[in-house]
Specification:
By secondary structure, the chain is mainly beta. It is about 10% helix and about 45% strand. It has two helices and 28 strands. The chain has helices spanning about 1-20, 50-60, and strands at about 25-30, 60-65, 70, 80, 85-90, 100, 110-115, 125-130, 130-135, 140-145, 160, 165-170, 170-175, 180-190, 195-200, 210-220, 225-230, 235-240, 240-245, 250-255, 255-260, 265-270, 270-275, 285-290, 290-295, 305-310, 315-320, 320-324. The strands form two sheets. The chain has a 19-stranded parallel sheet that branches. The protein has a nine-stranded parallel sheet with strand order 4-7-10-13-15-17-20-23-26, with no helix packed on it. It starts with a helix and ends with a strand. Residues about 1-10 and about 15-20 have low confidence and may be disordered.
């Protein structure tokens, strides 16, 4: 398929670039749409690289890629990440943004290799800050995805997403394993029934888990705001807003613990659904406090429940408000 060919081409480009990578790396690297991709580019703002793949080649482990305002498009701007790095919008504001634009293309933006190992032998740490991801219209691809193959290393990568915007996307973030912080971020779905804002996948290795912290995040117009199929999923969510979910604001096929505080769920078909498909020997625990559920059951006759509990789940509700 075209999507598969595009993914293979992106991988081939990454491998080819890494094979010829210069030994010189820098703790801070600049990238700009007006830059030039050359060996050793990015060391100064005036000598910025023009694509993220070249910037990744030049940044040292644990370093920072400063992304100057402008639009970044094409597979050379959507690299695979297998080292610790911070990717940050540099000198950006509301009118001058660093925008990764898929133009509806068939590829992920950043693919983080979950089993990648740092030079010290530990898991990698990847941060995205002050960036915009837009126009991921293809049904299979994400703004940011953390992928893991069937290894048994049990490394827990750390992924941090701060002050970012996902606009017109089918998936915003997909994770399979690791510690994930998402804060001060907005996710807006693609207009033609987008899929999931935050997707916690069924683990490739049974022992893999996801610890997700969501703070001050808006998730708007997805089928599911947050969905989990991982029995070792732990969610701590606060001061956030999920709205206009066609099916459910949060769908917990499987999870371990959930803590939700001071959040708003509204204008959606269902608030939080606990189907409890996990083993009967284990009882997941959810605590929901100081939160508001408004106008639930807006799309079709399948919804209407602020909280839908169908099985082996313990749910504690404290000081919440339910309207309409």
């Amino acid at each position: 398929s075209f999507a598969t060919m595009a993914s293979l081409f992106a991988l081939a480009c990454t491998l080819a670039l890494l094979a010829g990578q210069s030994a010189a790396t820098f703790s801070t690297v600049f990238v700009s749409p007006q830059g030039v991709d050359t060996d050793g580019c990015g060391y100064t703002m005036g000598g910025a690289c023009s694509t993220l793949m070249f910037a990744m080649m030049g940044v040292s482990e644990g370093g920072t890629i400063n992304v100057l305002p402008g639009s970044y498009q094409g597979v050379f701007n959507f690299p695979t990440i297998n080292t610790s790095v911070t990717v940050v919008g540099y000198g950006t504001d509301q009118t001058h943004q660093a925008v990764f634009d898929a133009l509806g293309g068939s590829y992920n933006s950043f693919t983080i290799v979950g089993e990648a190992m740092s030079s010290s032998g530990g898991a990698i740490n990847v941060t995205f800050r002050n960036l915009v991801f837009q126009n991921w219209h293809n049904y299979e691809y994400n703004g940011i995805v953390m992928s893991t193959t069937a290894n048994t290393s049990n490394l827990m990568p750390t992924i941090t997403i701060q002050n970012c915007t996902f606009h017109d996307v089918n998936f915003a973030v997909t994770v399979e394993n690791g510690n994930v912080l998402i804060e001060n971020t907005a996710m807006l779905g693609y207009y033609s029934r987008p899929r999931w804002g935050i997707n916690v996948q069924d683990p490739v290795v049974p022992s893999h888990q996801v610890n997700l912290v969501v703070r001050n995040v808006t998730i708007d117009s997805f089928e599911y705001g947050i969905i989990s199929a991982n029995p070792a999923f732990n969610l701590a969510m606060s001061h956030s807003h999920i709205t206009n979910s066609f099916y459910m604001c949060i769908m917990l096929d499987e999870f371990a613990t959930v803590g939700i505080d001071s959040c708003v769920f509204d204008s959606s078909n269902c608030g939080i659904f606990f189907p409890s498909l996990g083993p009967a020997a284990f009882t997941p625990l959810a605590t929901i406090s100081n939160s508001v559920f408004n106008t639930i059951g807006t799309h079709d006759s399948l919804g209407g429940s602020a909280l839908a509990i169908t099985g082996n789940v313990q749910v504690v509700v404290k000081a919440c408000t339910f309207n309409n």
